[in-house]
UniProtKB/TrEMBL annotation:
Annotated InterPro entries: GntR_C (IPR011711), TF_FadR/GntR_C (IPR008920), Tscrpt_reg_HTH_GntR (IPR000524), WH-like_DNA-bd_sf (IPR036388), WH_DNA-bd_sf (IPR036390)
PROSITE patterns per the UniProt record, alphabetical: HTH_GNTR (PS50949)
Every HTH gntR-type domain range: 11-81
Gene3D superfamilies listed in its UniProt record: GntR ligand-binding domain-like (1.20.120.530), Winged helix-like DNA-binding domain superfamily/Winged helix DNA-binding domain (1.10.10.10)
One Pfam family named in its UniProt record: FCD
Protein name: GntR family transcriptional regulator
Keyword DNA-binding set for record: yes
PANTHER family according to UniProt: TRANSCRIPTIONAL REGULATOR, GNTR FAMILY, UXU OPERON TRANSCRIPTIONAL REGULATOR
Keyword annotations: DNA-binding, Transcription, Transcription regulation
Listed GO MF terms: DNA binding; DNA-binding transcription factor activity
Amino acid sequence: MGIEFKDVVTASAAKQIAESIRAAILDGRLKIDERLPTEDELAHRFGVSRPTVREALKRLAAQHLIRSRRGPTGGNFVASPAPEDAALSLANATTLMVAVGDFSLDDVATARLELESVCCRLAAANRADVHLKAMRTELARQRDEAITDEEFCASDVRFHRALVDATGNALLSFVMHSVVEALQPVSNMIIFRVRDRHTIAGFHERILAAIEDRDGEAGVTALQDLMAYIRERYREALERRAS
């Protein structure tokens, strides 16, 4: 067993136990699909109660580091990494940090512009028909005046996800999916009263045309214009709130 069974402080015992097991997973002392000791064994080795162990296991499950299985051969096992779960966790953490003010929306826009500019260039070179079809579908949806603002926001997210997928770079897709999922809804929530949906769709149309033409620089220019527009609407929204 690769877990270090150190004495823990009762007030934060569950957190310390979870961190100890997490460290064992991340550095390879615990292998994928390896079964953890039972709750009784963990409680005995860490010198804590079973409810404390259960709380620690809940923390690990929430981080998608372990999974449980019922039955005679059941128990808690080290989970195989799932990119979508990791991306969701990162997106949720990023959303929270934006909400509490750890990241300013201006910082977010700058970071996203730089990252998505790379995506535009790669997408222009590597895009396939499936990516163009996905982007066209979302653009058509955004042109539909009958859709709600919530549906428009969801389509906005899917458009940018399709752009990122068109890069053909799995790691970049993982990182950018987290960024888009976390920041696009937050941005839309702040500016939806002052932004014009037709204008947003127009920027998306320019981005799509550039990707279709394999013109990465034109895509970057359209993206820069989109981010500048969003920044302006953000400032306008804040001014309205202050007045």
